[in-house]
Amino acid sequence: MPIIDIKVPDIGDFAEVSIIEVMVQPGDTIKAEQSLITVESDKASMEIPSSHAGVVKELKVQLGDKIHEGSVVLTLETQDAGAAAAPATAPASAPAPARNLEPKQAPAQAPQAQAATNPVASSFSGTADLDCDVLVLGGGPGGYSAAFRAADLGLKVVLVERYATLGGVCLNVGCIPSKALLHVAAVMDEVGHLAAAGIEFGAPKVSVDGLRGHKEKVVGKLTGGLAAMAKMRKVTIVRGYGSFVGANALEVEETTGSAQDKTGGKKIVSFKKAIIAAGSQAVRLPFMPEDPRVVDSTGALALQGVPKRMLILGGGIIGLEMGTVYSTLGARLDVVEMLDGLMQGADRDLVKIWQKMNAKRFDNIMLKTKTVGAQATPEGIKVMFAAAEEGGTTPEPQTYDLVLQAVGRTPNGKKIAADKAGVAVTDRGFINVDIQMRTNVPHIFAIGDIVGQPMLAHKAVHEAHVAAEVIAGELQGNQELASSAFNARVIPSVAYTDPEVAWVGLTEDQAKAQGIKVKKGLFPWSASGRAIANGRDEGVTKLLFDDSPEAHGHGKILGGGIVGTHAGDMIGEIALAIEMGADAVDIGKTIHPHPTLGESIGMAAEIAHGSCTDVPPARK
Ligand code: FAD
């Protein structure tokens, strides 16, 4: 039987990407189209499928490797006739362009590249309890935004949500509660810094119950507001667990209480069009013991107490944000990360500044290390590690009072009987969509975490508006609305740590890896009057402009990053500049108020342009 190389096919804009998951091992029998590895850029993750069926002979890559088109993933013994000559399979194609699109560059949301088979929809002949123009499944930022926009456009909308409150992960157990806690932590840290300004406070007295109550009040205010807005818009909320029973019908098993307790009651909702916004959930490592001392982000946000020693499994944004909160409250932190750095996706120079400021929170930062086992003991959770790559060091096992699993989130696509509606779901539970957010079934759309990376609320909301507009346009014969599409150039990312780290568009590391010539304007906050006045001048603001010969010295902004307090509040300006195709003069000549941190964006542009007078003169 021939042995062939399975190579990375054309992966479009993903010039060089890191392997974050290896899904097969030597000896495995695999099918054609089966996913082999998952790769990730800062914008998206995608699975690379096998072009052939066969038995894996040898893996040629490992976790953390950087690969590109043509890299050999593995060798495969195959029975496929003509396999030796056959090219590698391309990942599922990029989204089809929508009608009437402004010809911008490729949309920021990368497709989930894994192919999915189109199932045949079941035929449903029962009677419906409710009918509507648009059924929205899931009440998170994607779902409620879609429902509200569709209602505002005059459609009859039913929104199905299994929990008691709207808002999904973001409002209930994600963005908002984490920021409520992070704000308190930042104020506590800030107060600590005031000693240097001659003001001393005593050590803080922490009431965990009081803090939890504060967080719940914040969440309640926002979710209560959503319920009121749904009412104002006459959106019908059906509480329960939804599963498709046909291409135009959803069954809802009614739920009650604060969890998802089923009442036994059922309702059928029939719809003309549907928007799937069922979100994602935290990944749980299979070997982690069932123990209250092992939590995911939801468990960490429940704030049951402050551990002495805490392990953060996964050095991404969610883990580091939660770690910041717990460490300010008194926990000592360890973090374990398989890749070679924390906060992947952000430029290393920005992360370095954050890491220096935060070094005191950590006892151990274990990079290129994997967690291979854990045991619940009376003393704590004993966790075993191993080097993630050959020749690396294996740290000794450690025992923790709390282990936070923050190793990623997995989409809920496989839990909604999407196949009964004919909607294709990938092996990993994602739903592929085009840039109008349409699934393989023309009248069913999908948005938010369930359609892919980046799993961020602001992406979900924008996708939601697109889906609602396209649907309204099609139902009402409004061509302008029907042409709506998700063609954002960039989607900003923010780590709301202290200092915050925010970035958008091309990063400097990507520019280097992809051989893109950029002109950099880097403004150090040590030259910012406001940052110095705030006692927080460790930050930098960095802008990257196209410096290719075609740009003739007037290159447009391609990306930017900020590390510093309130970086997240400022990154939107850089996103706007990228969307508008601004160059260094546009940004530098825009008058920013003085003294502000936002001014640093104008100054970074002036530095790129060579006209900044707030820093020493550039060396000739
Ligand atoms: P979700 O918010 O997951 O909502 C899906 C909804 O569908 C849920 O309410 C769920 O109950 C419901 N549902 C699912 N299946 C069914 C079913 N079968 N029947 C009925 N209902 C169903 N993003 C940011 O942009 N900024 C941040 O600062 C940020 N911080 C985060 C912090 C944490 C700790 C976490 C975990 C996430 C954070 N995120 C943040 C990510 C953000 O929460 C998600 O990207 C966002 O919530 C996705 O919205 P969604 O509508 O796609 O899905």
What small molecules does the structure contain?
flavin-adenine dinucleotide
Low-pLDDT stretches: 84-106
Q: What is the name of the CATH architecture of the largest domain?
A: 3-Layer(bba) Sandwich
In helices, the fraction of residues equals 25-40%
Annotated CATH topology of the largest domain: FAD/NAD(P)-binding domain
* Percent range for β-strand residues: 25-35%
| Major sheet | 5 strands, mixed, barrel
The CATH class assignment of the largest domain is: Alpha Beta
Order of strands, main sheet, comes to 9-10-11-12-13
Structural class: alpha/beta
- Morphology: globular
- Number of domains as seen in the coordinates: 4
Q: pLDDT average, as an integer?
A: 92
List keywords for this structure.
Dihydrolipoyl dehydrogenase, binds flavin-adenine dinucleotide, 14 helices, 27% strand, alpha/beta, OB fold (Dihydrolipoamide Acetyltransferase, E2P), single chain, Class-I_Pyr_Nuc-Dis_Oxidored, FAD/NAD(P)-binding domain, redox-active center, five-stranded mixed beta barrel, 620 residues
